[in-house]
């Protein structure tokens, strides 16, 4: 797969959590988003130099490669996945044991282009101006959605790219559930299906509880709605209405919202259909846009 030069995105904006994760000090969901204080990324990056668990985004910085180096010499994909998960756990990225289990089961190494350092905590280009999100973002989103990824539940992965997270969802909801990926680049859909076939989610794909489709994810995927869990892997200027409509009462949507400054928002639909919205953290993702716009760069 050709690697086009692209901005490497889909990571948590580096920061000292206590300085910028305002969800811990401000009742975000009661404030209009524009009133939220913002901290420039350059400032955050500077401060994150002192934080060994803080990912440094685009540059393959030596602090980032701390996770990769000890495991690049020996051991198979499973050993490397385990080591990667251990590091994420030490950094407090996730809390549920289910997240550790699924990230060890689905080998990230099967979902990246050849020669890509799969277990490094950084987004990586996958061609077509897209990326595979950083492991810490996958772990964080799985953790946020854990209660809505129980066996038998329905999950939608919008902007499914490599298929990695869709495969994780499928393993979590099991053969009685439904995991659907929707991606607007046909070549990525074909490739993601090949990746899944090599992984431990292959049998779920074969039996039909896991599927990946070409389409505009802003419209969701009504065929398998309503969903207990919806994840969006690209940043939307605003929350697409179709995704809210396709969310089950009791369901949760996790979506990066914004253009340059982006928030990872967590939207819960209550049983009466009303919504609660909060911001989990600041992030940088590629845009949720039209295929033409994305390919134009
Ligand atoms: C940051 S990548 C994440 C991919 C995936 N979560 C992963 O880690 O492999 C965002 C993905 O969203 C896709 N995308 C962007 N806009 C889209 C849209 N309107 N409909 C469907 N997919 C879209 C891109 O092609 C890209 O594959």
Describe this structure in words.
There is one protein chain. With 297 residues, the protein is α/β, with parallel strands linked by helices. The chain has a single domain, classed as 3-Layer(aba) Sandwich (Rossmann fold). Helix content is 29%, strand content 21%. It is built from 10 helices and 10 strands. The strands form 2 sheets. An 8-stranded mixed beta sheet has the order 1-10-9-8-7-4-5-6. Strands 2-3 form a two-stranded antiparallel ribbon. Helix 3 runs antiparallel to helix 4 (97-105). It starts with 10 loop residues before the first strand and ends with a helix. It binds S-adenosylmethionine (SAM). Residues 9-10, 130-133, 159-162, 164-165, 182-185, 188, 216-218, 233-234, 285-286, 288-289, 294 line the site of S-adenosylmethionine (SAM). Pfam families: PCMT. It comes from Spinacia oleracea (Spinach).
